[in-house]
Amino acid sequence: MTMTQPLTADGVGASARRPDADAKVRGDFAYSSDLWHDAMAWGATVRSPHPHARVVSVDASAALALPGVHAGLTAADVPGVNRYGLEKRDQPVLAEDVVRYVGEPVAVVAADTPELARRAAGLVEVAYEPLPALTDPERALESPALHEGGNLVRHLRIRRGALARADVVVTGEYEVGMQDQAFLGPESCLAVPAEEGVELYCSTQWLHIDQDQLAGCLALPKEHVRLTLSGVGGAFGGREDLSVQAHACLLALRLGRPVKMSYGREESFAGHVHRHPARMRYEHGATRDGRLLYVKADILLDGGAYASTSAAVTGNAACFATGPYEVPAVEIDCRSVYTNNPPAGAMRGFGAVQVCFGHESQMDKLAAALGMDPVELRLRNAVSTGSTMATGQRVEGPAPVAELLRRVADRPLPPPAADDPRLLPGGTSNSTRADRLVRGVGYGLSVKNICKSAGYDDYGTARVRLFAHEGEAVAEVHTAAAEVGQGLVTVQAQIARTELEVARVTILPADTEVGDAGTSSASRQTWMSGGAVRAACLAVRARLLERAAALLGEPAGALTIGGGAVTSSARSITLAELLAEGDVDETAVFRHRFTEALDPETGQGDAHVAYAFAAHRAVVDVDPELGSVRVVEIACAQDVGRAINPVAVEGQMHGGIAQGLGLAVMEEIRLRDGRILNPSFTDYLIPTTMDMPPTVLDILELPRPDSPYGLTGVGEPPLLSAPAAIAAAIRDAVGPAAAAALDRIPMTPEAVATAVLDA
Amino acid sequence: MEAGESLLFLLRERVGLPGSKNACEQGECGSCTVYLDGTPVCACLVAAGQAQGCEVVTVEGLADGDELHPVQEAFVEAGAVQCGFCTPGLLVAVHDLLARCDDPDEPQIREALAGNLCRCTGYEKIFDAVRLAAGRSR
Amino acid sequence: MTQFLSAADLRHAIELKAAHPDATLIAGGTDVMVGLNFGHRQESRLIDISRVAELREWSRDGDTVRLGAGVPYTRIVEELGGELPGLARAARTIGSAQIRNRATVGGNLGTASPAGDALPPLLAARASVEVASSRGTRAVPAREFFTGPGRSVLETDEIVTSVRLPVAAGPQQFAKLGPRNAMVIAVASVALTLDPEHRRVGCSAGSAAPTPVAAAEAEEFAAAELDWTGGELPAPVLARFGGLVAGATSPIDDLRGSAGYRRHAVAVLARRTLTWAWQELWRS
């Protein structure tokens, strides 16, 4: 499709067409759940029904007796180390003597058809001896240890400055429920035994970390575990941890036959980590004129049964507990603990979402206590370039926090509700009328780190090959970076077009045959893999110029590339001619600047590569009697450094806001005794077209000095303060008396109505 | 084929048409929307036996050979496709909406597409795509 | 392995059900298939009645509509908004467009969930449910049809064939509350009908008891207290009416809402639907 376009059209800064979009709209795009091999068997998982139990015995004989059932594997069949995990390898591929959460895999079976595999899984007899379940994170530290070393995953203390006496002090306790990523494409993969080892086609956010963990579990050298990314139906953090991968490989290697696994929606809820539920206690002290003097925060994150990324989430929750504000003194304690609840891990926003609801609720409370406009209070304390964060790190690069807030605050407000039921709380359910509604407006400001933090040696790798095809130069880009829907494949092609000034770019499937790209999370992949693609392109370009210099007899510095040719003052030679003597093939590794670990006593240190900021204004209509809410409009302003693909940036913002809206008013995994009560899209509700309001975006492009093209990550910021702004708007609508009780998200209709009734 | 299995399973696993998607298998997400005798339905809620003798059109049947259907083209151009897992069902739903009404206003679009969940886009670009396709078809 | 039997016409359907009383009927499939897909239910036999033409028709006979049990909700919304505005309003709140294209009133009756959105309008309108078997046909008042959650007076060999409802004699309302603005199972719902000529009120609540319930005491109270000559709706009457409707319910605490909230919501929706119906009556 790029054939007819002028050179470097659809380069950096253009809203280029997605290279995978045609296949996606035709229904031809192969997601991991669409994979097929004529010889394949189907795997299914046997899961624990208990939150905590001793596994006495596992007997698969009844399952294996069914014709067409070929394997029933348990922990004893794991050839390597029966542990995996992103930060700490504490999670068994298949449970050994103990299960620690409802849904923990205990055995896997393989059969000729999916129905048979499910039936066989049901026939595996597991004898359990239930143990007392620890499901209240507040009691974790005093309860018997679920893991060696106790139930504390991490405690991060941040101490800075001396707490001064404040004119005004506000305290609050806040809670955030357990949110699910609710990606639409269920966990699935196809494992194919190879001459040496196994080939795995799967949907993941990070091929190489999967490979690394799988090699350990399968007792294979890494190079014998080859992964290729299949189509990914959304991720949002939920595909950082392994799910089906190890199980399918185990079965395939045992059978010597390809094995496919694919979860249904109910199993998917058990099959991936969720956002950490949080309980937060805050105290803010300020001067009478609204200057923050100190913030104390005590944050507890329920990490669930295994560590996953709890330690890093703890770090983020602590680092951003005070928000994008200048605070001279802080005393922050953030703990994550093990419980017998489902494991918590990465989800878009990664610890910063939870504390944003806390610090922004506090800012509103403080504004009320001071009799000050909440926007004015925020403006007075907003960080800017050169400010110091709670960890003592100086804010480098653009930090237009006040500007972002002004932009959303200065927008005209939407008109009052009209009497079209489709635009009222409840929609066509006809539960209300415009005259029963109260309107509210709320604000949220947020900050989060971009890229990995605290000394992690993070990098991206890209290989770019330039070759001639039919008289034209073609660039081929190969990385292991996961396209999860965000549009990374588009961005990679745009960068190659811009740097090499070629029209034709091919993006190879992501796999482990090329070096590590790092994870498609932490809003880092365009920066890191985009940076690697750019570096590889620059290396290719340098080689081309050297070749041309030799041919043209002029110094490389006197040559320019453009229009499909290399040109000197006198002569010109086409790229295709230059490439006749052979392809140019370069691989580059790109690293961001070094960061350091936080001091274990004080939590001080330059731990972050960069900060990103966003501001939200939410306008809501609330039916106070029923408690139902319709968000009328969300305005979001965000600094993206440089929009590599403006339409994709807008798409990230819209989608992030939608997930924030979900957390604000409806999304929560409900647990009882560690069991998920709502593992379906009937009862785990995500926003529909009738729930998402029009969004008004304001995209600032203030280039960073230290990133490719000046860009900054865009995926997470639009979610961060959306819940806080919506919650603030609901409180504003119902008035101060009822607002005081609204200290938890999601703010369901029942919670709102109850707060109004009680007030 | 097992007559009690769903039309979605039949399409995906027996007929080799995996374009219709399997996100919830309980009629809550719309990603498996297909035409059954001209009516958009959730293929996951139709028993395979019920579809016997019926005309089924899936997302795979919307394009005219190499030529994308205008609704498909509008989705690509508007940026309505991210991960794309909701896209096949949405395309059928939008195709049907525009066949019934060539100039839907925003509340109409919202109500018509309420049964198609999307987790990536926040729907905004999807609405853009609907308006783009509607404008072109008028 | 599920045996799948396809009924060609009503007689055939009745014969099949008589021969296989354990079989599950499937029409739109929007309830049955969920259970099958999730493996939560196993069916040895399904009888498909989606092709039975007699079930897919509606007709009007004077002041009565005979609504075939298999008419999908989309058609009720599009074709019966004039005759049966309460049911049409409820139908519009059911699931999504795709669901409404398949789901039927017969399915709501057969499933007998207290959250079936089409059910309160049937009770409010004092509809009658026609059932057939090889033993003959009978009519059951909608208000006597349900015996518990998922249970009804339907015998194992019987099929719901149609529902008879009076053509609206005045304003009809339906309102439902849920935690999302579309595609939601009701936390509570209320249907209300006014018949100014006969000075009658119909009112029923959903999702607030083991079955949909008619609020008989509230109906009588309102019929007696309303100023049918066109007066205002006094606040105490409204409040008492809401209280009586809520009093007719017996909700439980569950995942979707507490008993207290459901009762509160029923009272609010009852007051509102009466208010709106009353306004509509005197606007016209």
Automatic annotation (TrEMBL), chain A:
Its EC number is 1.17.1.4. It is an enzyme of class 1 (oxidoreductase). GO terms for molecular function: iron ion binding; xanthine dehydrogenase activity. Keywords: Oxidoreductase. Coiled coil: none annotated. The keyword Oxidoreductase applies. PANTHER family: XANTHINE DEHYDROGENASE, XANTHINE DEHYDROGENASE SUBUNIT D-RELATED. This is Xanthine dehydrogenase subunit D. It comes from Nonomuraea terrae.
